[in-house]
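so the lab meeting is tmrw and i was supposed to have these ready like two days ago... anyway. pasting both below. for each one the top line is the aa sequence and the line under it is the structure tokens. i havent really looked at them closely yet so no promises
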Amino acid sequence: MIDDNYPQDKDPEVQSLWINGELDLHTFRPSEIKSLIPEYMNACLERDIRRIRIVHGKGTGVLRQTVHAILDKQPQVLTFGLADQSEGGWGATIVHLHSSHNSH
């Protein structure tokens, strides 16, 4: 669940996060990523945030590949690519969103 009144500790199963253009996936299960990324992008668009940094970590690259596959299918994505070294290198992806979108 995305909630910009972070933190919210009422339900330990519900994770809340700041909608600030940075999404760190380290605290999420892989099964949550598929719905989390589009929801987060839409929440950013509602706040006029057009650039997102998704931190997926370096590891084996499986999560990065999953993130990129999800981004490929999102109509609100203008471009995406690996971050430069100052922002995490291949452990993070920078996403640029369209200035306007239609979520349906």
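ok protien two:
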Amino acid sequence: MDHEEEFLNVFFNHVSQLNFDKAKEIVERERESLRLAQGDPWAMLLAHLPQIAVAEKSYIDLGFLVTKNKGFLRKDNSLRSMYDILRGDFRRLEDVTRQSTGDRTIMTVASQLCQFLTARIELIDFYEKMHLMGTGKQMKYEELLVQIEDIVDKHALSFPHMVLTSIKAALSLECEILAHLLRAQLEMQLWRFLQSLMQLHGAHTRITAWERTLHSKDSWKLAPFLKSSQLPALFQWLLKLKAAFVSKFSLYFFTTLAQQTPLQEMKNLYSRQSSDYYHKIQSFQRRYDATAVMLVFDAHQLEDFAGPGYHHPQKPVEPLQDLDCYSIMFSYPVKAQSHMPNIVKVITERASELAAVDRVVFYFSPRDQNTYVMSSIDPRVTLVVVFDSKKAEKESYITNFVLDLSLQLRCNKVFANLKLNTK
């Protein structure tokens, strides 16, 4: 490894470990020690490197989501624009060094940094799209997964130079965390226990691996007791997203998990989660004397559906029909199976109303004297609150509880709060 490669390797290691001031400091020392002519390719590369450190520091603190006051004839100083300008600078450097055989390393690094900057711009667009969806009514998780997988596939073989290994590893971990979390959400929507668990575990291992790089020797000199609150905003947000999905997983698969863990231990574990859905449901049911609070799953047209829990992949699955297509995912305080005919009737007959995710549907059965209050959480999951007396829509405590719980389980707020994490 020659001097240039050794220097670049150290620089990008500092950047990947968030030692941005250290990265800029070694560039300044290198420029002062060599005093190269302004047109020298190495001098040109060194002139642009500090801007990478500045951009990456802003990126990891979600600086690309900070609202800029951009108006007519005013310069666009957004982070996305900064990356785009840097990409143009490195393209020009690549062109300058293309004709010189002695500047192969600089040309290659400049070319591959353009690829890295392109990936960053695509990720900025991706985060902005997630934030925008989060402020709306419905998250399109399939669309988001396709976009992040496209970024992963497009850049799988990009910027392979050894001096860029550290920043490529960090970017790959970031993309993989997002992909695993989005897949986990889609698997939960299909009530697949093992698949959801594996995706959450995949996200957890990669978050742990990325965090480990932040606890390098140099990082520890700067922050010997790095706490969660001191982690960069982007990393904190990914932790919050994972925590929100784990809380949702814990409720969706409560029955399966309860078969393996004592109830009191589960309650203790749930109380430490970002959202203790079990306690919220329990408190509401006890306070307002609801007959049951339930989650109901619709397995229509899912030919391979075998219910939650563990299943042998080669065991044949018999297709479900009629009422059997609807399963109780969760029910507190009791599994109110006798109410399922009425619940299925409402879900099927008032499907268009339930499809409006901000709508709460009330149905009173004169024969049974029961009221059913429902809201759609996911395309196949419906929240149902049952009362053994007539309840009116004007009783806001019911409507507010159903809307609030549905909204939390959709996890929109975590995506909407992306911008709230910015400084």
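from a quick look at the 2nd one: Residues 217-226 have pLDDT under 50 and may be disordered. The beta strands are 292-298, 326-332, 361-365, 370-378, 381-387. will dig more after coffe
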